[in-house]
Amino acid sequence: MSGGGTAAAAPAVRRLALIGVGLIGSSLARAARARGAAEVIAGYDANPQHLARAAELGLLDEVAGSAAAVAEGADLVILCTPLGSYAAIGAEIAPRLRPGTVVSDVGSSKACVLRDLGAVLPDGVALVPAHPVAGTEQSGPDAGFAELFVNRWCILTPPEDAAPEPVALVERFWALLGSTVERMDPQHHDLVLAITSHVPHLIAYNIVATADDLESVTKSEVIKYSAGGFRDFTRIAASDPVMWRDVCLNNREAVLEMLARFTEDLTALQRAIRWGEGDRLLELFTRTRAIRRQIIDAGQETAAPDFGRR
Amino acid sequence: MSGGGTAAAAPAVRRLALIGVGLIGSSLARAARARGAAEVIAGYDANPQHLARAAELGLLDEVAGSAAAVAEGADLVILCTPLGSYAAIGAEIAPRLRPGTVVSDVGSSKACVLRDLGAVLPDGVALVPAHPVAGTEQSGPDAGFAELFVNRWCILTPPEDAAPEPVALVERFWALLGSTVERMDPQHHDLVLAITSHVPHLIAYNIVATADDLESVTKSEVIKYSAGGFRDFTRIAASDPVMWRDVCLNNREAVLEMLARFTEDLTALQRAIRWGEGDRLLELFTRTRAIRRQIIDAGQETAAPDFGRR
Ligand SMILES: NC(=O)c1ccc[n+]([C@@H]2O[C@H](COP(=O)([O-])OP(=O)(O)OC[C@H]3O[C@@H](n4cnc5c(N)ncnc54)[C@H](OP(=O)(O)O)[C@@H]3O)[C@@H](O)[C@H]2O)c1
Ligand SMILES: NC(=O)c1ccc[n+]([C@@H]2O[C@H](COP(=O)([O-])OP(=O)(O)OC[C@H]3O[C@@H](n4cnc5c(N)ncnc54)[C@H](OP(=O)(O)O)[C@@H]3O)[C@@H](O)[C@H]2O)c1
């Protein structure tokens, strides 16, 4: 290894294969290129427009015609597609993977990855699922950017019996992109993300739909006066519908468990409002401030009010 | 009236009395000063620190020792305090108001204003409730700023039998501050704001509390991985607890009606997840995008993803 800066260091991966070059896949391509994390970046996407656009943007060294073709000869294959596509992609690429290949992904739910990919991969191919806790509400290759993963968490959920080398490779890859890597049990990951991401998205989708269905308040009134708080929910509820359908279907138990807790608490809140229990309301609205403070202190957010939207 | 710029135009109000100089009251003082909307700005706040700070910031021409004192001799009195304080403030100031005075407010709920203030004000004093649909999650005089109301809606809910002059005065005042003024029936206002503001705040408070109470996921995990969506809810749930308690207690019917609709829809969503109804989920997650588009098109929001927080 020649001495000096990051660019001169050996790349984590010789040949990186990206299946899916949308928001996350294209950001991975950009970040891996910018930080010298892969020697060759090959890409495939079932959406021909997205694949052509990623090529046009210069994000890929090689453009492949199928998932099987892109995976062939790769050192690290990363699935950057909705969770519902994993089983079919796994079946398609499995026969073409050479021993020593590491298969990973970026999916928002993790127990399902072991279930859908773990069984079909051949011996000698390691599975190291990953979830970068980073994203936006936008989709497609134009929405991606190289800095998406910087100072964000990336959670790895390797199987219990995983060999150390493939895990270290994926860990090194994400660290090179600027992420802080953590390991977690996949079931626990799914519970944590259900409350920190999946349920917030679902209730945002739900209230936007509720507002959309009202007869007593018109849609144009909802739009006009959305600055009162509703607006923020519409941003979250603008995220990719296929991605969120697949998260619901593939993290069903954890999502339903957290939704049950949420509705239980909401019932108590409704009751406190109905009975005019001011002290109880005040107590509830006061203690939620502490968690905000801790998120700001943990550097996960800035204290600037409303991000200039005010 | 001398010709020329705004500053040379006659102010809308000779003597403006602000009761409460927190986020909204101090922003009003700043905006009225900056735009020449009042000749003299007098202020009172029950919180001595806030009152002293507003004076120190040079926001007030006169600092009063009580609500009654500040209201005496005023042309326009604006209550900028939590809704729960209105009845007592009304009773205190009523005997000191001279005929011709206009009383207004900035409260987030409107039917209760007529109920709490309408009855106690003497003959010859007009009540013109107002609600600027503008704010942040912060409180106190340091959080205010002059531009808060620019290009925001301000909703007036005058009683049906209101004389035209006081309504025109309040309208002119808010227009000078840069707001677009609308009139609405107070009951209808309360329904519209219940769905566009109150219920979004309540479900944000609720999910933050749910996360705070979990045993299966630790608080530090919630904080660490909050970038997945939860973080945005904590901002909304950091708003002033007293203000939101008072909104719940004073807009009870509309809030409960909208919460009932929300929970009904959420039950259907839970059921669709439980039964794995992918098409139904996809349909729901797709149609909510349209409303976001319309909010952006209406200029109530920018399309920039996640406001740079990504
Ligand atoms: N967005 C986020 O904030 C975020 C954050 C963390 C993790 N993730 C995870 O990242 C993954 C991708 O999400 P994204 O936001 O990057 O979505 P995206 O922008 O829509 O990109 C996904 C790409 O994969 C393509 N695709 C779909 N099925 C395919 C298949 N069978 N084979 C090959 N390509 C296929 C899509 O084409 P079409 O457009 O034609 O479907 C699209 O071009 C998901 O698993 C999601 O859970 C997302
Ligand atoms: N914040 C928003 O986004 C927003 C938007 C639109 C409308 N509003 C409405 O604006 C009003 C004020 O909200 P805000 O955000 O400006 O709150 P704020 O920053 O907390 O200011 C309210 C001020 O009034 C003081 N106060 C409380 N009771 C009083 C009384 N009886 N007499 C005199 N002063 C009293 C408070 O003192 P303490 O701090 O000691 O309580 C505080 O200094 C509320 O009715 C709210 O519904 C708020």
Automatic annotation (TrEMBL), chains A, B:
Residues 14-303 form the Prephenate/arogenate dehydrogenase domain. It comes from the Bacteria. It holds the Pfam family PDH_N. PROSITE patterns: PDH_ADH (PS51176). InterPro entries: 6-PGluconate_DH-like_C_sf, NAD(P)-bd_dom_sf, PDH_C, PDH_N, Preph/Arog_dehydrog, Prephen_DH. Gene3D superfamilies: 6-phosphogluconate dehydrogenase C-terminal like domain, NAD(P)-binding Rossmann-like Domain. The keyword Glycoprotein does not apply. Keywords: Oxidoreductase. The keyword Cell division does not apply. This is Prephenate/arogenate dehydrogenase family protein.
